[in-house]
Amino acid sequence: MTASALGRASEGTRVVRTRRARRFTRLLLPAYSWLVIAYLVFPIAVMIAYSFNKVTTGLPQVSFAWNGFTLEWYRQWSSVPQLTSSFWLSIRLAVSATVLATIVGTLLALALVRYRPPRFRGKAAYEQVLFLNIAAPEIVLGASLLGLFVTINLARGFLTLLLAHVAFCIAYVAITVRARMAGFDRSLEEAATDLGANSLVTFTKITLPLIMPGVMAGGLMAFAISIDDFVTSNFVSGSAVPFPVWVYGVTRIGIPPQVFVFGSAIFAFGIACAIASIVISRRRT
Amino acid sequence: MEAALPAIELTGVIKEFRTGHDVVTAVRELDLTIAEGEFFSLLGPSGCGKTTTMRIIAGFEEPTAGTVSLHGRDVTGVPPNKRDVNMVFQSYALFPHMNVFENVAFGLRRRNVAKDEISRRVNEMLTIVNLDGRSHRRPRELSGGQQQRVALARALVNKPRALLLDEPLGALDLKLRQAMQVELKRIQREVGITFVYVTHDQGEALTMSDRIAVMNEGAIEQLASPREIYEHPSSRFVAGFIGTSNLLAGKASSVSGGDAVIEVGAGERIVVGTRDLAIAPGTELELTVRPEKIELSAERPAGPGCALRGTVTEVVYLGTSTSFTVTTTTGADVVVFQQNSALAGDLASRGDQIWLSWQPAHSYLIGQSAPG
Lengths: 285, 372
Known about the structure:
The two termini of chain A are 47 Å apart. Chain A folds into two domains: 2-72; 82-255, MetI-like (MetI-like fold), CATH 1.10.3720.10. Chain A is mainly α. Chain A has helices spanning 2-10, 12-50, 72-75, 81-114, 123-135, 138-151, 158-181, 186-194, 199-227, 231-236, 243-250, 258-284. Chain A has twelve helices and no strands. Helices cover 76% and strands 0% of the residues of chain A. Chain B is an alpha+beta fold. Chain B has two domains: 8-239, P-loop containing nucleotide triphosphate hydrolases (Rossmann fold), CATH 3.40.50; 245-366, CATH 2.40.50.100. Helices cover 23% and strands 36% of the residues of chain B. Chain B contains eight helices and 20 strands. The radius of gyration of chain B is 25 Å and the shape is elongated.
């Protein structure tokens, strides 16, 4: 005790210095964190802010000077017909692509987790393709898909968009679901079979409910990727113009403020989904 | 009276697993008949084929050769959901997204039992396993012992022809395990269903079973009652696996009238029953004596018993008994358990010269172990 007390007296200055250093680091980490968050959130905040901006020129186009607060663009959200129709096209496209990609991706994940080469030939190739699907630049995917559709003479429109979106969403679903399957206890399925359930009942009553969080997460990811896809969609859209492609086209002549209204709505929907998922998972545990 | 059909009958069952180019034989030529209402244990070290045997009965593994019959019906090739047996898994395998009631009702719902009958039978079964009032709990809200009982109820509520239990008490602590052993035996008596119990714990098997099959390397070494297995192990493996036993090697010097005199060292002779083994004088043999059958004394005891001389090399106090390790003059180490009764003082301490003695009936000749 006395020895440490002596030591403490002689190390007084060092204690003060470390305390000061600690105070500094205590501020440093939060400051750094907030900076990163601000960096990520700022563009979204700008979009939301300008969805409430008044327009003083004759044309209803976004101006980047602050002219005052208005709810006009929210009131007139559907007054740009092409914008509205491209938005609904994107929603239909994203929902369809999500449903299809989630089904195919989930089944693919199950196969990848369950089966090994003698039964599942080409499993390694499958895994490589999944990885490639995510790693390949979209510009390559878009250009080659366009080439393919032209070659087989498939008219560009909703169908080609759907085929393209399903193709790049499957990998995300498969990888998310496979991660969820990692700790899956196969004896649960055996127990169900032992209690008289056939394989269909075992899947619907046991397997699917247990991997559902992974399936939902994969589906949400597919939806998020599909709804804002521009590069691939721009190649294969043809006559059907989804929201991001329309917005890109309109930037050359001036963006109507409703674009920011739709953008803010999509963002709000995403936030709502995130909050709902947190609430549900908290209630379960 | 006509003989009742056996609950479970395995005939010539072989199971091989292929991994790449290797073939591993998990079960070799197994014949097994388990009677109706019996508490039957498959006992053996890990990798002996006991779990594979159980999974073959349940239908999760198809035998490479041989047949499985349940109540006289050949079910080889019939999937598990169409077999009238239920299993309690080592991990319990309770459905985490269902509450206790739904877990237990799962099997009945698959068989389209009427709603009110389901709730009557589930509640009845929950009473039997002492889980009243917990039917709305999720499995993870229950203790290990309670989860174990849900698993049991979930299987038993279907009134299977046989219940298969795969090391069901392995995950419980000692106190709970002992309580559950008594509980399992009670439940088995109450429901009167055939239990097939897989374990590597010899204590568990001895406590609960009507009969035990001791398995080693895919084959049954001995199939008998717990007492028979403990007192008369048929092989070196069984003697070593069940409890502590002392093995003494020797040579038969004379055989007469069902008794053999075995020379276990220079001038040391032990008398042992030959059982039905054909023993010629001069044969090398092994015999076993259980530690608690041996008496310690300072002087050579009078009478016709077997006796060996030795030096105490280790004394371990175990509470109710004390374990002595004695190195005999023949060179073998012999373990002796002595009850710490009120009368007994300190029998011996390390370094003491001492006599070991036992009744000839308590030494038991072990059959020739399989060569190799």
